[in-house]
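Protocol step 4 of 5: obtain the predicted structure for the target chain.
Materials: sequence only (see below). No template structures provided, no constraints applied. The aim of this step is simply to have a reference model before the mutagenesis design in step 5. Sequence pasted as it appears in the construct record:
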Amino acid sequence: MSTSVGTTLNAPIASVDSWTLESQILLDCAAPVPDEQSANRLQELQDEVVDWNLLLRSAESHGLMPLVHHNLKRFCSKFVPPTFLAQLKVEFVRQSKLSLGMVDELKLVLDRLNGKGIAAIPFKGPHLAQKYYGDILLRIFNDLDILVREADVDATQKCLEDIGYTRSDRREVQVENRLLGRGSFRKLCFEAMYEKSASEGMHYIDLHWRVLPPGFLPICETEFHRHVQEEILWEQQISSLDDEMMLMLVILHGCKHGWSQLSMIVDTAQIIRHAEIDWDYIFEFSEKIGAKNMFMSGVFLAHRLLRVDLPNEVVDRINNSIVSKSCNEIIRQFMVDPDAPAWGELEVLRFLIQLKNGWVNRFVFVVQTGIHIMPRTLRRCFSNN
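Step 4 output (structure tokens):
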């Protein structure tokens, strides 16, 4: 299969009849460098009646404030109400200070962990922003995700505590953190939250020993560690996942949350646009772990909503799958109301079940997911008492 990005498509994967104006503006702003069609539409906003309050709420709820600020200021600042631009600027400056501080914190944490001989892999967050957006200030991240081997969890926790981090006191993770030291409970979890106060705000670290909840998919963690590469970022050598694993991880994360934010789809689009993806390998891997349709859902949404070019063979695979039917509900909801509330757990579960082929696979997935949800439900019961 051709690995080039930008191959001419055979046909559109799906069609949408109409969008609200605010939904279209959000989509046109959803890239560091909008394409010509989006840029032209943004420059023609002077002739439109925009609900700026709805657009502001939608940009915030979808995690796209930096990109909306960046592109409205670039293409149509003369037509946008000054008060709206001022609100965007205030939020952009606040988030920028936090992001820059978190990058410095990530460099410190990685340096300390490497000094202890702990192989730590940052993913998502500032690493994804720098590598695939070209600017850490154009992507919101509220915590630092770091992956270590399960055998290194205790040593990593000790290292974080030595530089001022404590277990998070957020109610939803208090019980999980108290039980983290118990090996049997750790098998049922995949992350732990740490926090530290800083001048620009709180710093949060999501410490992972698995990239996904146990039971969500049969992924062997060593598979991800086999796809680690060394690169220079912020004048520091760091370990990172290769493009295929990063794309897979971002898409599975989006699926796990029912693609609740457009920013998740933007992440997917940016990786596809800026990487030479080995499509044969990633389709083979996704099928091996039972996530082929989940993977295609992210690719489908990136193409349909953000017009990401795909090789013909990828388009053919998606056209011949159940993915477009399952994802059209997400598209319709965003099309009608970009400020609609995110799905609840049961709605997300229903979406994921729809992506499974055959009743046997669906039943097995429900059982596996139930095993994962049970400790989380118990955790909520404890935290509410």
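Step 4 remarks: The chain has 18 helices and seven strands. The chain has one domain: 21-383.
Proceed to step 5.
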